[in-house]
Amino acid sequence: MADIAHPTRLESLAGRAIGATGVMLTPAPAAHRVVLRADPREAEALSKALGLELPAAPKTSARTDTGRLIAWLGPDEWLIIDENGDPAADLAKAAALHSAVDISHRNTAILVTGKGARATVQGGCPQNLSERAFPVGSASRTVLGKIEVVILRTGAEEFRVECWRSFADYAFGVLSEAAKDCLA
Amino acid sequence: MTSFRVKDRGRVKADRPVRFSFDGVAYEGCEGDTVASALLANGVHLMGRGFKYHRPRGPVTAGSEEPNALIGTSRGVGRFEPNTRATVQEIYQGLTTESQNKWPSLKFDVGAINDRLYMLFSAGFYYKTFMWPRSFWDKVYEPFIRRAAGLGKAPVDVDPDHYASRYLYCDVLIVGAGPSGLAAALAAAQTGVNVVVVDEHAEMGGSLLSEPSVGINGKAAWDWLEATLDELGRLPNVRLMTRTTAIGYYHQNMIALCQKLTDHLAELPTDAPRERMWRVRAKQVVLGQGAIERPLVFDGNDRPGVMLASAAQTYLNRYGVKVGNRPVILTSHDSAWYAAFDLADAGAKVGAIVDTRNDIQAALMQQAKARGIETLTGHTATATSGRLRVKSVRVNPVRGGRVGKARTIDCDALLMSGGWTPSLHLFSHTKGSLHWDAEENVYLPGQQTEECHIAGAGRGLWGIAAVLEDGVKAGTAAVRALGHSCDAVRFDVSDDRTGNGVTHKELATDRSPGRAKAFIDFQNDVTAKDIRLAVREGMRSIEHVKRYTTNGMATDQGKMSNMNGLMIASDALQKEAPQVGLTTFRPPYTPTTFGTFAGYHKGSHFELTRKTPIDSWAEEHGAAFEPVALWRRAWYFPKAGETMHMAVSRECKATRESIGIFDASTLGKIEVSGPDAVEFMNRMYTNPWTKLAPGRCRYGLLLGEDGFIRDDGVIGRMRDDLFHVTTTTGGAARVLNMMEDYLQTEWPDLKVWLTSTTEEWATIALNGPNARKLLAPLVEGVDISADAFPHMSVAECTVAGFSSRLFRISFTGELGFEVNVPARHGRALWKKLMQAGRQYDICPYGTETMHVLRAEKGYIIIGQDTDGTVTPQDAGIGWAIGKAKPDFVGKRSLSRPDIVARDRKHLVGLLTDDPKIVLEEGAQIVTDPNQPLPMKMIGHVTSSYWSEALGRSIAMALVAGGHEKMDQTLYIPMPGHTVAAKVTGTVFYDPAGERLKVE
Questions:
Q1: Is residue A75 within 8 angstroms of chain B, CB to CB?
Q2: Does A128 contact B760 at a Cβ distance shorter than 8 Å?
Q3: Is A166 close to B610, i.e. CB distance below 8 A?
Q4: What is the rounded distance in angstroms from the CA atom of residue B847 to the CA atom of residue B829?
Q5: What is A19-183's CATH topology?
Q6: What does the pLDDT read at residue B115?
Q7: Rounded to whole angstroms, how far apart are CA atoms B973 and B999?
Q8: Chain-chain contact of A122 with B803 (C-beta, under 8 angstroms)
Q9: Which CATH number describes the domain made up of B295-418?
Q10: Between A101, A107, A122, which is nearest B167 by CB?
């Protein structure tokens, strides 16, 4: 469904990337995305289908070597991101009761990287994103300025900001503004 | 021009001159000066005019509490700021400043006539003067008040600066980097916790900057300060922020900081924000805000040259400026004696130290004597003279309550001290209780509501040693609360200037107190007699006195005036101060720019504009747009020379006659899945869903518990356990939240999951008799012929090669399809359909045409034809209610007597007698246009359009008892004329629905 290599795709942030002193903002490559809803008691069977353990603790994520990423969003809700294989296809094989909704096109993401990455995101996000409170691997559905986002810390100086397609312009704009001030 | 700069004093860089201007005159100051210190160095005290009486005024303080010396600063277009405190604004090369509230000039101000008419401007003059006649209010009084209100001119140009925002978390936030704050920082930082220290000044040090003679741990004060700041600055867990004001203290230890970044720089760095707002969540807070000196209240205490003794001391020791050559000290506190000694040591000839108290420490008397300074104890001040600068002060001895013979002492500065008021502003923001110290006549912090610790002069302590020790205590308590222990930090202080004093109401006088201009609130020009008048006229609470007199209501929030006002009010009421009360301090602590609050929320980021995947095509093709919720939607597509009316009529005609294409991507979409999905749908929506087969869809109606219509949309059943729900554009988030709410709180037993798919799909609607002809060749995987794919069908298939969910539905009354494809392919599909549709003259249409076409069919728009008080029966869509269902949201309310009453407002059609008249939406409806005013209104027009298909106007309206008024004529009174219209059904076009059946 995601048709990630399709030539007619129109990316909401096509061609946009900025580098401010201390931080880079880059639109993330296309990816399959699935919202998985299921009773946490089914996690084991679903984990097996997906090839990695569904995270069970709030504000955490799990990741495979091939880049499949699963963020805990709620007790019965996960966001799965995969630039290669389609998680929906894997989940279809699982017998456990669940709902897997393809949202590959609903979401888009901005990668925020560099020394000033945390300060840049912290320009609009009220959550504590310090190493102590939000170490590498953390994930959280939260707000950035006026929009809802999912923030994943993929590295010490790397954040992935997931948002809805029509929010991308705003998210990119606010992050660009904050980026100018990220070394303060 | 005489220089008042004192060699080898102060922290300013005497070898780095800075040129700036004030009221068009060029002055020279030094790097490190404020506008006030630089002007004082040039002998200029006159910096402004009073608000009400326009009396000449000079700076009273050397800090952010300054009420008088307010100036306008500018640096090019858009960078003008009024009401800047000259005592805070640092000078830089080329800074341009001007005085305020004067005309034609600061030295000769016509408005000063008010000073002679002062009896007119007594307390409550607004309420008394502007009463009568009523007709004067709009033209005379209000413009007068508006012009008189406020001091500076508001800037008119767009602010070219930008303002940054940041969220910050820390363990300990220390507000105020004076001795108590620094001591707290030293104690807390050694444990390794995150410490943030902020100070509103350009330099840290607080009172130490004005007290260089004190020794700490064997070092001179400034050497100790430098070493301490250096030590703290090296620690990786400490962040020091200057020019940073804690403006507000909110719940759960959230503190807002405003950091000024460029207002002191001659060259503006590219892209640097002017100010930065920090929203800090601190686990522990230490407030070391210090204390503010109180003025004394006596006749003429506002002349330029009359200032606080501590301010004179700061100007001398921090800025190297003598505020006068012949100062006189007037005090009720020991602290002012040291100001006198410092000035004398700097070469000033101190005229006298006048103290209201009889008994003074022998040591102070000795030091005065050693310097040859005359001391007058047990004295009062009863007047001053001097127009633009104080020339003399009249003092009298007071013996046994009797004021004795006056004596006049010449002076060029009068330095007063009426004691000290602990700064409790931030603590008050937390709603912490205050405790009245009857001995010192001050409020002190009491019960705390937040995790905060108050240290130093802010809780009434005096002397550097005591304050340092208290800071350590606060810092230690803060880190202990976090589970750390820290080593004791000790200070050995020498040459500490301890002392005490008393406070007063107005000073005793031998003259008529009714004629005295003894100011309390310098910025709002409130005098002692205003307070007494307010009490005489019946004000009992300080809150009433404040509003009646405006005491403490200026931009300084009464930092200097509150306590003096309270002392006088409590005296007038013969009540203890706590019984009279204390007015509430509110954020921000000091005036803060709008830009700082706005931060990134400006321009295109003020609000987000959501755009569909097809929006760029519409823009390229000249669409006019309209905002719908946060979306911008194509409104209509005008061709060259077309008006909106022409474009919409053309789009309507093309759609009805051949085919129109419409971007419906903004419709809310929710995927409802799970084995209990159908049960969930039955409970949420009014309609029955059980018998709806997969592959079919149905109009769904959603009510609130009150039985009123909340939302609607077509809902497709994709599988037994999967529904594709659509909602209105504006209702998408609300509906999802409402569903989640019911699912989580009312029916957690249901196995159902909801996922928003609004933005997963781009939705393109094709409507018109040629819709199937265009679409059929592009569709694979489903037969869309009329029989195989009847009206209200849904299927998964591919359209033009894109995987798709295809609906056969219509919001126009024409044969219609809605194609949903993954969002990133929306624009590509649209272009393919446009290309394939050329043979049918396919016409893109916008929301306006969509509105007209649906109105012709009587389809309602939620929020336009309904307003939150409309039931399904009112709207004429009672057929959408599954009457056999045991329950659904809102069911019970639909049988309430009020809901079934016959005179409720019903949705009806209206056809004007004159078919060319298009009614105004919102227009009121009456039965008899000749009845006397005010007429009884029985409803209003909700939708009204020109219908190209019918060649006449059509309208819908909510009318009381409308369903029983069919064929009656009602009237719509408009300015200058009345329109008659007949009540009809709401379906104007193709009532039999034949057009849906096109083969």
A1: no
A2: no
A3: yes
A4: 20
A5: Gyrase A; domain 2 (3.30.1360)
A6: 79
A7: 46
A8: no
A9: 3.50.50.60
A10: A122
Domain-by-domain residue ranges, chain B?
A: 1-158, 163-291+422-486, 295-418, 518-581, 602-666+761-845, 667-757, 892-996
Cβ separation of B168 and A122 shorter than 8 Å? yes
- In this structure, are strands B660-663 and B519-521 parallel, antiparallel, or unpaired? unpaired
- Chain B residue closest in CA terms to A96: B674
Which of A37, A130, A165, A172 is best to mutate for the B interface (most B CBs within 10 A)?
A: A165
Q: Looking at domain B602-666+761-845, which CATH architecture does it have?
A: 2-Layer Sandwich (3.30)
- Inter-chain CB pairs, A–B, below 8 Å: 133
- Domain range B163-291+422-486, its CATH number among 3.50.50.60, 3.30.70.20, 3.20.20.100, 3.40.50.360: 3.50.50.60
User: In this structure, are residues B877 and B701 in contact, taking their beta carbons and an 8 Å threshold?
Assistant: yes
Instruction: Report the distance separating Cα B771 and Cα B91, nearest Å.
Output: 72
Please say if the pLDDT value at position B130 is more than 90. no
Q: Which residues of A touch B673 (CB under 8 A)?
A: 37, 99, 101
Check CB contact of B755 with chain A, cutoff 8 Å.
yes
Look at residues B877, B850, B882, B874 and name the one whose alpha carbon lies nearest to residue B712: B877
For residue A8, list chain B residues with Cβ-Cβ distance below 8 A.
Answer: 824-825, 827-828
**Helix (H) and strand (E) counts in chain B:** 25, 52
User: Does the pLDDT of residue B120 top 70, yes or no?
Assistant: no
Cβ within 8 Å of residue B538, ≥6 positions away: none
Pick the CATH number of B518-581 from 3.40.50.280, 1.10.10.1100, 1.20.1260.110, 3.30.950.10: 1.10.10.1100
* CA distance readout (Å), B233 to A115, A116, B195, B236, B458: 21, 21, 11, 8, 25
Which H helix or E strand runs over A176? Answer: helix A168-179
Q: How many CB atoms lie within 10 A of CB B715?
A: 23
Chain A residues lying within 8 Å of B676, measured CB to CB: none
Element spanning B312, H or E: helix B309-317
The answer to whether the beta carbons of residues A172 and A12 sit under 8 Å apart is no
Distance from CA of A1 to the nearest CA of B (A): 7
Judged against a pLDDT cut of 50, whether residue A1 lies above it is answered with: no
Query: Which stretches of B629-708 are assigned E, i.e. beta strand?
Result: 631-636, 660-663, 668-673, 697-703
Inform me whether the C-beta atom of residue B803 falls under 8 Å from chain A C-beta atoms.
Answer: yes
Q: B667-757: which CATH architecture?
A: 2-Layer Sandwich (3.30)
Q: Which of A12, A35, A36, A99 to mutate to test the interface with B (most CBs of B within 10 A)?
A: A99
Which CATH number applies to B1-158: 3.40.50.20, 2.30.30.100, 3.10.20.440, 3.40.50.360? 3.10.20.440
Shortest distance, CA B604 to any CA of chain A (angstroms):
8
- pLDDT for the residue B259: 98
Range 579-618 of B in CB contact (< 8 A) with A? 600-601, 604-605, 607-613, 616
Residue range B352-385, pLDDT digits in tens: 999 999 999 999 999 999 999 999 999 999 999 9
Span B281-312, pLDDT tens digits: 999 999 999 999 999 999 999 999 999 999 99
Two tokens, residue B566: 């309270």
Query: In which residue are the tokens 């508001």 written?
Result: B154
Report the residue of A1, A3, A4, A8 to disrupt the B interface, i.e. the one with the largest count of B CBs within 10 Å.
A8
Q: Does B281 touch chain A (CB under 8 A)?
A: yes
B826 touches chain A (CB under 8 A): yes
Residue A125 CB coordination number (10 Å): 24
Name the minimum distance, in Å, from the CA of A45 to any CA of chain B. Answer: 17
Domain B892-996 in the same topology as domain B1-158: no
